[in-house]
Amino acid sequence: MKTMKYKTKITLFNSYFDFNNNLKLSSILSIFQDVAAHHAEDIGVGYEPMLKKNLLWVLSRVKFDIVKQPQINETVIVETWPHIKGKIDFDRDFLIKNLNQEVLIKGTSKWCVINSQTRMLSRTDEIEYVGKYYNKINYDEKFVKTPTFDTTNLKPKFSHMVCFSDLDHNGHMNNTMYANLIFDAIENKNVNHFQINFLNECLLNDNIDVYYVKENNQQVCGVVNNKVVFSSLLN
What we know:
alpha+beta
C-alpha cells in the first residue's frame, strides 16, 4: 500500500516575496493549502468527492517556523502528510526544503470537516484515507490553541470589509487572506514563528476590526460584531 506522503517541486517567484525579500506569510499558507488539496485528491478525500457527501474541509489552526529564508526564484521541495486522524480533527504536517534537503520551513495544521448544508461539524469516521500513514511528526509538543487577548480598551489598528476576492470555494474568507491582515497589523515584519486559530467564519461584507498587542510576542486578533473570529501569535 502506498505511503500517504506528497512531494513536489515549485519555484518561488518574485510575487511570493514581500518588500524585504522575505517569503510572505500568505505565500507560505498558499503553498501549504495547495499541496494539501493535491494530496487530498490522491488519497480519496479531495474537494469533489467530499462535496458529493455534503462535506467540506475547513482549516481550524496552523503554525509554522521559518528556519531559513528561501531566495527569490529558488526551486524548493514541498512535502506534506496527514497524521492518524483524531476524534474530531485531522492534523497535517508540511516541510519546505531546498534542493540539498535542508529544511527551510516546517509547519503543521489542524483541520475539521463540516457539513456543507448545515455548517456543523461532522464525525471523522465519515472520512477514510487511501494509503498507509507516514510515521513522522514535525513537532513533539501538543498543538494548542493560540491565546486571545482582551480588546475592550483597545482601538483597532484598522478594519477590513470582506470582499468577493477574499472568498474561496467554501464561501468564506480564505485562510491566506487573514495572513495579509496580520502582516499589515504587526510592527516587526521579520517573522520566524507564526500561528493562527480560525475561530469563526468570515463571510462576504463582514467588517473585521483588527487589533494588535506586543509584549513578549506579537499578537493579532480579529473581531466581527463583538465576536473574535481569529487569533494569532508571531515572533
